[in-house]
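Hey,

Quick one before I head out. I ran the complex with magnesium ion overnight. Inputs first:
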Amino acid sequence: MIQTLFGSLDEQQKPSFLDRMKEAVTRTRENLSERIEDAVAFTKEIDRSTLDDLEATLIAADLGTTTTHEVLQTLREKADRKQIGNVDELKRLLKEELLAILTAANTQPVTKVDGTPEVILVVGVNGTGKTTTIGKLAQVFRSDGKTVLMCAADTFRAAAIEQLEIWGQRTGTEVIRTKPGGDPAAVLYDALQAATARHSDYVIVDTAGRLHTKTNLMAELEKMRRTAQRIIPGAPHETLLVMDATTGQNGLQQARLFTQSAGVTGIVLAKLDGTAKGGVVVAISRELGLPVRYVGVGEKAGDLLPFDAREFVESLFA
Ligand SMILES: Nc1nc2c(ncn2[C@@H]2O[C@H](COP(=O)(O)OP(=O)(O)OP(=O)(O)O)[C@@H](O)[C@H]2O)c(=O)[nH]1
Ligand SMILES: [Mg+2]
């Protein structure tokens, strides 16, 4: 590898996060931009009726009705005062509105300084992408030079433990496990003991998919939280809810109920690459009031991007 003043050539040739975000939201962007162009194609001036057409477009991109109405309210006021001259101006104002919503919710996580392992509990309904996200997260931390342990606390299915072990091998990360059917809180206990003894930087905990309506499974999560707290004060430091972008507003409804009972502190939106409804990111920020920490843009280890509101909005209109 040839080193240059600005890093290796390999690094320079890698697509930037912005390029990768653009790629991931291609379908959403096409959906959104083309429809905006259509909505204003036959009008010289952007007025209330143009904005009525825009309403359907934003809802189709999965911004959700509440968020869409809020955004349009501001734009309508501007249109009434003839402050929106053309489609470019409309797009610019729309970007501003979306960015304002996203930045309001997207606070940065607090950096831990006390030297104990940072515990990240990963939760969500079945099949959203939890285990895959954990593998990718381990990759992010490892390439940052951090030490990571993964904890296989989805003991519900034997295959879940094996799946995590494959990610362990892929990313060079050790997995603390128990036998299928074992107590998730017990394996979490073991993992946190091991991480403390080894001074690991991170412990990422996989959990079984569950619906918020399964009272016993939600109680199990609560028990895991208490266990974590006993071994490492303040743990879990982050509880990430993994959502599946392709489920759109349904997923949002589930997430709303989940966050109420599981102490969720941040969102990972997986499968953003597979949907034309990427606008759901805005609805999530607006309606859950929780920061989107990462987005999943594929099935491989490198397919997790830190979420950046400005990059995301740029990608939607670029
Ligand atoms: N295209 C794409 N596929 C993804 C992404 N994240 C996960 N997947 C796929 O989604 C499927 C489910 O992923 P898992 O990680 O097993 O989901 P899970 O939430 O752990 O599932 P359960 O443990 O059964 O609840 C797998 O086929 C993954 O490869 C993503 O960002 N993009
Ligand atoms: Mg899983």
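The chain has 13 helices and ten strands.

Talk tomorrow,
K.
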